[in-house]
Structure formats: C-alpha cells, structure tokens
Amino acid sequence: MDADGSAQDESVSGGPGQAAISGSRAQSPSASASGSSSTSTTPTDVHMPVAENWCHTQVKVIKFNYMWTINNFSFCREEMGEVLKSSTFSAGSNDKLKWCLRINPKGLDEESKDYLSLYLLLVQCAKNEVRAKFKFSILNAKREETKAMESQRAYRFVQGKDWGFKKFIRRDFLLDEANGLLPEDRLSIFCEVSVVAETVNVTGQSNLMQFKVPSCRLSDDMANLFEKHCFSDCLLVTGTKEFHVHKAVLATRSPVFAACFEHKMSESQSDRVIIDDVEPDVMKEMLRFMYTGAAPNLDRMADTLLAAADKYQLDRLKVMCEQALCLSLTNENACETLILADLHSAEQLKHQAIDYIV
C-alpha cells in the first residue's frame, strides 16, 4: 500500500450490483465520453535489411473517457461486498460495446474492507472478447486528476467480466476532508479506456534493388599509406632506419606524439624526429599497429613492444603484449616477466606472473 492511501493491485470480481447511481458525462477539463482512434505501426528503420516480402501489422485502438459523479458519498451505507454501478457508456453511438463502472464503497471482501474497490465492467459485447487497458483517477476540488491507477497491460474482457483494483484507495484517506478528494461530499471518478478494435495486416513485395556493400578496407588502405609513404610529412629516425610517417596519424593514436608535434619541439619543427631508445624492428611493428590496429609479429617481440607501447601510451597494444606474455610464461622467464611488468606498470601481467611464481 502506498503512503497516500492507494494500493496497486488488479483483481477480478463479479456479482450483481444492489444499487445504481446514474453516471454523468464528464465536462471540461475531463471531456464527456468521447471516442478517438489511433493506429500504431512499426516505424521504418533505414538500417533494416531489405526483404523481398514484407508485412505491416496495424493495431487500431479506440480511446474514450467517462466521468462518474456520486453525490453525498459519505451517506453510502452499503456493507462490505455490496456494489454501486454507474450507467452504461460507450465510445460513441455506433459502438456496440457497452461498459459501466462499479465500486464497492466498503471493499470487495475481508482483505479490502478498509478500501474502496473500483472496476471496469463490460456490460454488452457482440464479440467473443475484447482487449482493453484502463486508467482510473479521482478529480479533486480543482478538477485535477489525482490518485491515478492504470492497468499494466491490455486485459481480456468478455461480456459480464470486469477488471480493476480491489484496493483502489483507503476509505479513511478518501473521507479525510484535508485531502480534498470529496468536495461537497461529491466523489468524481474519471475513467479512460483504450480498446483494441482490430488488427490489420498489410502485405507486399519489395521492388528495391539488393545492394551489395563492399567490405571495409580501412585497415588495408592505412597499411598501404604506411608502406608506400604516400603524402608523408615527417621522418622518424631510429638507429640506421628511417620511417616516413604522417603527423596526423601519429598524433591521433598517441598522446606522446601529439604533445611532441603540438608543442613544436625542435624535432617537429624540422619534421624530423630522432628516437634512440626503440629498435628499428620494434618501431616498425609499433607504427604498423598505429596505422592498422594490427600487430602480426606481436608474439616474437612482445616484451620490447610492451616497453614501446608503454612509452607512447598505446594502451590497447600494451594489453595485447601483456596477453601474449601471459600465454608464454614458463619457469625460466616468469621472474624476468614480473620485473618487466612492474617496470612498465602492466598490472594484469604482473598479477599473472606472481600467481605463476607462487
């Protein structure tokens, strides 16, 4: 039960009503029992694959509302389980579905005796069944909806069947004048109903061409850019080896190179960067990774490549090296690998090496 006196439970109950209080069509701001229809369709997704045959299912929903006003509500002396009913209502003059609201002012049973029970009843139906959602609320002195409770799904109604809330609102909360729910001892219940009218399938065949999109060649194109030195604008020198590279690629991939080019160090100003702490073959493999995201020779130089990846903050390459070194741990290299991991803050490799040694 909520602190404000309402309780969220939906239950089924039946039985004839002992008294009937006629319902009134709601006035502004809650419109009289009026119907409207809406159609929901599956939205078109531009990313959906094109099918040769297709079907669109359209679910038509009719929406309408109704207000029931009970004057002198506090004088209702019905006992537990006894019923008050509204007059019947529908979505319009041509609608063959007839509905009414019913309440148990003092609850449906022993469990709900401290509550007002509220239900939507299907009085007349030309079909075997209909499915509908509903929402109940109480209008306060300002004609504002309050204490709203709504069905969580569309329920199956057959003629004579009702759905609703056994514990719609606590009686003591409802009768308390401070809560303003019974202005001039008048209870105004507002009901909104959404009925599934029909489901229509629209089928057809697609006349669109089937497009075959070529596979992505970005990695291959970047590899060619690196290997063929096209439009290079910088020279990396390590040992006796020179690499023609592109500042934009290196700066994008490595924060260290980005800082080098951005702050216009002496090397960048001459478009020539000398690197004396990375072997040429390691540098080539690192550059290949920076251009393509791949490191085909990783296994045979994982230790030295790890050091280079750490220096130039290539986090993905660093973890790839850690993984390769973990897979190649032996009794002979475990201690050396642990030292390497500690030196370059390779925490995952460090933990694996410790576990292996211990």
TrEMBL record:
**Cellular-component GO terms for this entry:** nucleus
Gene Ontology biological process terms, A to Z: protein catabolic process
Identify this protein by name. Speckle-type POZ protein
CDD domains assigned: MATH_SPOP
Q: Which PANTHER family match?
A: SPECKLE-TYPE POZ PROTEIN
Q: Which UniProt keywords apply?
A: Nucleus, Ubl conjugation pathway
Limits of the MATH domain: 63-193
- The UniProt record lists the keyword Nucleus: yes
Protein family membership: Belongs to the Tdpoz family.
Q: Where is the composition biased (Low complexity)?
A: 22-44
Which InterPro entries does the protein's record reference?
Answer: BTB/POZ_dom, MATH/TRAF_dom, SKP1/BTB/POZ_sf, TRAF-like
Which residue intervals define the domain BTB in the entry? 232-293
Q: Which residues cross the membrane?
A: none
The record's annotation in SMART domains points to: BTB, MATH
- Extract the SUPFAM superfamilies matched here: POZ domain (SSF54695), TRAF domain-like (SSF49599)
Superkingdom, natural source: Eukaryota
The pathway it acts in is:
Protein modification; protein ubiquitination
Cited Pfam families: BTB, MATH_2
- Carries keyword Zinc? no
Q: What is the lineage of its organism?
A: Eukaryota, Metazoa, Ecdysozoa, Nematoda, Chromadorea
- In this chain, the stretch annotated as Disordered covers 1-46
Give the chief site where it resides. Answer: nucleus
Q: Where is it localised?
A: Nucleus
